[in-house]
Amino acid sequence: MNVYDFDKTIFPKDCAIGFCLWCLNRNPKMWLTFFPKALKNLLLRKLNKISEEQMQCEFFGYLTNIDDFDEQIKRYWDKNEKKIAKWYLAQKRPSDLIISASPECIIEPIAKRLGVKYAATDFDRKRGIIIGKLMYGEEKARYVADRKFPEIENFYSDSLSDTPLALCAKKAYLVTNRARKVRDWPI
User: Fold this and answer.
1) Of residues 45, 66, 67, 72, the one with CA closest to residue 56
2) What is the pLDDT of residue 148?
3) Which residues of the chain have pLDDT under 70?
4) Which end of the chain is less packed: N or C, by CB atoms within 10 Å?
5) How far is the C-alpha of 107 from the C-alpha of 109, rounded, in Å?
């Protein structure tokens, strides 16, 4: 089995941010209601005043304001599916697992289009909360270990925060240059 991070690994950008911008541009009042709060939380994270999970939960809160979510996510992926990395599409297998900190409601539609398994942060759009834990860092490795997946042949990620999962794989790769360059994982 091969395991792939999604954002900036097989997709050149962060899809949660991309979808947020997509929604902001279709609902201009969100620039006033959501955007200042997002900037504040980003600053608090940079100053280590809140955790990564707290920042992400607050950020994902924009999803609670999208009345026509199913239509918008479909349109977003209709436009952006073509940005999936060509190197990934050339080696894609049905046994692949995409694992991402982005919300499941954003990852699920593209994973289904690709015909692969997925695991992502479970975010309750009605209540605006993360169910369980943010699928980030050690949580990704814990998820794979708890489900007793087959051995990971290859793991791909853009972030050293995924080192716990990289250590579980026979071979790991660091992806850079907006999902275009794949190299061996640094030791």
Assistant:
1) 45
2) 86
3) none
4) C
5) 6
Token pair for 129 = 């909360």
Q: Which two tokens stand for residue 62?
A: 């924009």
Dist. CA 145–CA 160, nearest whole Å: 19
Cα 94 versus chain centre, distance: 19
Alpha-carbon distance of 45 to 59, in angstroms, equals 11
**Which pLDDT belongs to residue 150?**
86
Distance CA 109, CA 75 (A): 11
Q: What are phi and psi of 161, to 5 degrees?
A: -65, -15
Q: Whole-structure pTM over 0.85, yes or no?
A: yes
> What is the spatial distance between Cα 187 and Cα 177, in angstroms, rounded to a whole number?
20
Q: Tell me how crowded residue 64 is: count the other CB atoms within 10 A of its CB.
A: 15
In the structure encoding, which two tokens stand for residue 171, read together?
């071979």
* End-to-end CA, the chain: 22
pLDDT at position 187: 78
- The tokens for 181 are 């360059």
Do 58 and 38 meet the contact criterion of CB atoms below 8 Å apart? yes
**Gap between the Cα atoms of 118 and 28, Å rounded:** 32
Q: What is the pLDDT of residue 56?
A: 94
Cβ atoms of residues 60 and 16 within 8 Å = yes
